[in-house]
Each structure stands twice: as structure tokens, then as C-alpha cells.
Amino acid sequence: MAFESQDHAKAYWKENLSLMLKLLSVWFIVSFGFGIILVDVLNNITFFGFKLGFWFAQQGAIYTFIVLIFIYIKQMNTLDKKYKVEEE
Amino acid sequence: MDIKTLTFIVVGATFALYIGIAIWARAGSTNDFYVAGGGVPPVANGMATAADWMSAASFISMAGLISVLGYDGSVYLMGWTGGYVLLALCLAPYLRKFGKFTVPDFIGDRYYSQTARTVAVICAILVSFTYIAGQMRGVGVVFSRFLEVDITTGVLIGMAMVYFYTLLGGMKGITYTQVAQYCILAFAYTVPAVFITMQMTGHFLPQTGFGATLADGSGQYLLERLDGLSTQLGFAEYTEGTKSGIDVFAITMALMVGTAGLPHVIIRFFTVPKVSDARRSGGWALVFIAVVYTTAPAIASITKVNILNTLNGPDQQGVLYENAPSWVNTWERTGLITWEDHNEDGRMFFSNDERNEMTVDADIIVLASPEIANLPNWVVALVAAGGVAAALSTSAGLLLVISSSVSHDLLKRTLMPSITDRQELLYARIAAGVAVLIGAYFGINPPGFVAQVVAFAFGLAAASFFPAIIMGIFHKRMNSAGAIAGMVVGIVFTLSYIIYFRFVNPAADTPDNWLFGISPEGIGTVGMLLNFIVALVVLKFTKDAPAEIQEMVESIRYPKGSGAATSH
Asked: What's the ipTM?
């Protein structure tokens, strides 16, 4: 057991899962939501010469994916330190 | 200098570079051969993953497909990048902590079962083989066009290249050659894109340029012009697409989940020193992939406008054949562009209705885009080198998966547990040699459906590996019976659906006959859901995973004490 107590282990996993689910919700909303389900609605808005829905599907979703992963990396490193389970 | 000589020089120089790196990084132990001794830094690993990931299909044909499909082509852009979010958040760190070599290793140990391991090995070999045949074909196409040799010679040259550095270097050789290959393919992809964007819109960045106004003084937006031209010529409106919403959804999901389940991508995350590095590798891989993937839709739309303008003329009345630009003639020789003068007016006309007189193969869009835009010959040669880099890097990664599946998972862990490290390495090299020969055979004699099968590999990975790995990490009570039943049902369902609609009864392959309106490309999504459902139901009626397995699952959930990847 690398954790100080069983409670710590549970709390760490809970925080990890909640962070993951939050980020995956954004992942879903941006790609499947804005890029596919709501594409026709968003296409009524023009964004730097692009129809907005089309832009999300061919550009915006990809940029969002990158940001999501780097937020995850940063938050998890903080979480590892908080529960003292980071690598030496 | 002419294009042929330049291509010889550029491709030759890059190949010498790859071989040089492979020799410099020669593998000594089995650890080195499979996972580079666990010592590759995250940025380098991210680049190598990106090169591994971006195959001849991404480099040569994706932008062409988008150019034909318009909005519908977004499934590839979102599908093949969104999977990295799943990988980095849900799989990579845990698999790295688990610390084994291969995906079947994880499945076999986590589900404490040789049957589970064997099912996983079969899935891995199936997925990798379908992929590699397409890569060999890709190299063949590039060489036959630029060196003016026949396609068989092209494939044989490519086969010899792949064989050399996979066998010499193993994973460590591949990792560093793939870093070099990434640099070359990204450079070769973006340079022509920047040139054509500047010509067309005056913008420097392709990513913003394809949304900008045209530089011809009309003040019209490029995409607006393209939508207008498309409608006028009988194509679907470029920014709208024609596929149904549910099919776009299902295909995107299958490609995303398939990406996260592909064995040759997952194995990358075993090669970094630490769990935190595995997370970072996923992020960097996506950054490097995004360089190419955000450029692709710009090439797609700009080149489409270029092609329509050069074939039909600015007034869209058709251009006299004797005035055709030289790229039309060079590509006509390969048979990938054809012209039939139906109305006998001596003019070419490209449309999607009864007026059409041209066939333009989507696969030439990227390779021909520098010629269409009148860019210098060295840019054309550079694009050829980029195509070769893309095809070689992916083939080498796939060969490694096949050789490790056979020598490590099948022989060492199942059939011949007593063999030494040295013998295992020998078998790995023999397996890679056999695999490259079979790959080359399919490259020379494509069964006619290679391109389709490559896309289906994603559906198969989505329906088999992804649920088993996810439940292995996030559902610690999941047992072997559930996982095996799930994988078997998932892959059999997906494979049957694809085989039925594509090979048994292709006449019925229309949206009306599809299950829920989902095409064979997207059916992996349904296969994945079935896999989850079957596994959970079977778990209800069977015993939970044993206590020591549940403890092991607990231990992969935090980074501390990861250590290097080990064989056992």
C-alpha cells in the first residue's frame, strides 16, 4: 500500500475519476455535440469566415482535445503530490 | 533538375538517415527490442507515436478523401485525433504502471487466463496485418509515380527498407528513426500547404487561410466560393455533407475508440520511463499529429478549388485539352486521371452530373497539389519523401507488434515457455521477416479491398480490445469469463457485419438495409457496446475476479513504484 491509509486510496481514485469524467464531458460536447449533433444550428453563425459547426468539426475539436490532455497532465501531477504517490 | 532525379536524391538521403539511426541504436536485449529499455523521453516518444500513427493513408489519401467528402470527411479528423484523449486519460498511465510489453500481456495477466491471452493475440495479429498490406501498397504507389517504375518494383523496394531497420533496430531503432520520419513527413506536408494557401488567400497559416477571403480581388470567402462551385457543378455543398447524422456519429466513435485500442499505438506508452511521462507522451503525440491533421482540411478545400478552376477554367466553361496543365498529363499516364470528351468540344469538364468528362482519383490530391499549384520541383520530391516516411514508419511499428505477438505472447508465454531471451529475439526476427513478405505479397496483389479493410481494422480494435482494457482498469471485479465472452461477441459481430455487407452481399450495402442506418465503417461502435453489455451480463452470473487480481488492479491506479517495463 503506497497510500497512507485506505481512505486516502479511495479519495485519490474518486478525485481522479471526477477529473476524468469532467474532461470527457467536454471531449464529447465539443466533438459529438458541436461538430455533429448541433452542427446545423451552429452553421448559422460565421466565425472568421467559417461556418461555426463546420469549424468545430474540422479545426476546433482538435485544438480542444490538445488542451484537455494538458489540463489532465497538470491536474494529475498535482493530485499525485497531494496524496504522495508520485514517482521518485 | 527534373523531378525524377530530385526524388532519387531526396528519398535516398532520407533513407540513409533512417538506416544510420537504426544501426546507431541497435537493440541488444529483448527489453531493448520491444520497448527501448523503457528509456525514451516523452517528447521524442510523442513524435515517434505521431509518425507511427500517421500512415500512408493519413499522408497520401486523407486530404483527398476530405476534398471529396467535404463536411463528411470530418469523421477522420475528429475520429483519428479524439482517440488520443481516451488514450491519455483512460489507458496510457495505467498500462504503463502495469509494466508489461504487449496488449495481450495485459489481457492475459489481468484476466488470469491463457484463453483471454490467445484471443487477444489473434485480434492483434488480425488488426495489424490488415493495416500493413495497405502501407506496402502506399509505398508502391509513391515509387511507381515518381521513379517511373512499375508498382511491383516499388513495393519490393519498400519491403527491403522496412525489413532492414525493423530487424536491425527493434523498438529503440524504430523510436529514433520515427522521430526523424516525423520531422520529414510534417515538413513535407506543411511546406506545400503554406505555399498554396499564400497563393490562394494571401494567408500564411493554412489553418486560418481556408476560412479567409480569396486573393483574386473578389472579396469572396474561399469556402463560400467552394460551396457555390460545388452546387453549380452538381456536387454536394462542401460544408454540409450527405451522410446521416447517426452514421457520422457512429463512424467518428468507432475511429476514436479504435485508435485507443490499436495495439501498435498502445505499445508506445510502455516505452517511457514513468507513469507521468506516459500521460505527457499522449499529449505530445496529439500536438504533433494535429500539425498535420489541422493542415489537411486546408489542403483539401484549397486544392479542390484549384482543380475545379484549372480543369473548368475561371468561367467554368471547360479548358481546351491542348492547353491542359502538365500535371494532368503526368497523372493521366498513371491512369489516376482520365478524360473522355463526351460532347466532343475538345474541352475538359469536371462535374458531378451528366456533363462530367473527368475522373480524378482522390489519392492523388496530396501528391499532386504542389504540381497543381506550380510549385518548384524540389517541393514535389519532398512530398514523395514524406509519403515514403509515413508508409515506412507505420509498417515498422506494425511489424513489431506482429513479431512480438508471435514470439512473446504466443511462443514464450503459451507454447514454448522454456526458450531463452536469445531464442525469443531470434523468433521475433523470423516472425517480422515472414510478416514483411506476406505484407509485400498483399501490396503487390491487393485483394481489391485493402483500403476498405484498413478502415475496418479500427472497428475491429474498437469492438475487441477497448472494452476489455477499460473494464480491466475501471471495473476491478470484471472476470475472465466476462472479458472473453465480450471480446468474442464484439469481434465476431463486427467482422460478420462487415463481411456480409462488403463481400457476401455488396448489393445490399445501402443505408436502408443497415442496422440503425449505421454503415460497416461505423459498426464497430455497436460491436463495442455489445462487448460491454455481454461482459457485464456474464459477470452477473459468474464469480468475481479473484482477490489477488483485484489487488493488482488497485495497484495500477496510482503511479508510485512503477519501475521499468519488465518481461516478468
From this structure: 0.94
